[in-house]
Amino acid sequence: MRLFAEFTKFLLAGFGAIVILLSVAVLIVMPRMRWNATARPSPAENWIAGHVLTAWVSMNASREHNPIPATPENLRDGQRVYEQHCAVCHGLGGNAQNLLGGDFYPPVISLNDGLTGWSDGALFFIVSSGIRMTAMPAFGTKHSAYELWNVILWIRHLPRLTADERAAIQARIENRNVDELLH
Ligand code: HEC
Questions:
Q1: Cα of 96 from ligand 1 centre, angstroms
Q2: Which of 8, 143, 159, 180 could pair with 147 as two cysteines, CB 3.0-4.6 Å apart?
Q3: How far is the CA of 108 from the centre of ligand 1 (A)?
Q4: What pTM did the predictor assign?
């Protein structure tokens, strides 16, 4: 009985200490941190976020391959979806130069490198679910699976744009009318 009472006291003291520490963190430390979107995430934050994202995606993504073949027509449809819904943040050529002229935290990811690490099922899962606490929206509720598979064809194609495709995109980037870029 005595032991139980001691143990309860110990637990309550531990709980009290945690509440005090959390209050100090939220009320005093956190407001003094940098919350501006121009800051760059620290290596520790990058590591933790990268690890959690990869594990979450691999636990939930399907093992499906893209059911849509990379024909010129399908690529064109994918490009259209990309330019209407993704280019504003990821840039017309996928290089993360957003068309808003603003900074994001965490920063927008370039789709020109690093995508090879994700399977088709993983990309589908990311694009359809979005990524919480980042600007990456979920497209799964308002877009058909067909549109999402098409856009995945296009983002896989971005690192391999032909010289003509690259030149056409560059010409449109130089045309600074965003409305025109997006329609
Ligand atoms: C409002 C801005 C915004 C829009 C619009 C947007 N994204 Fe993103 N996207 C982001 C940000 C920010 C990240 C980085 C999230 C992070 O740090 O984990 C991201 C991450 C991703 C990733 C993960 C890349 C990786 O290697 O981790 C993929 C894939 C992706 N976006 C595809 C798309 C596609 C396809 C579309 C359009 C259908 C799209 N995004 C539209 C902001 C956006």
A1: 9
A2: 143
A3: 6
A4: 0.89
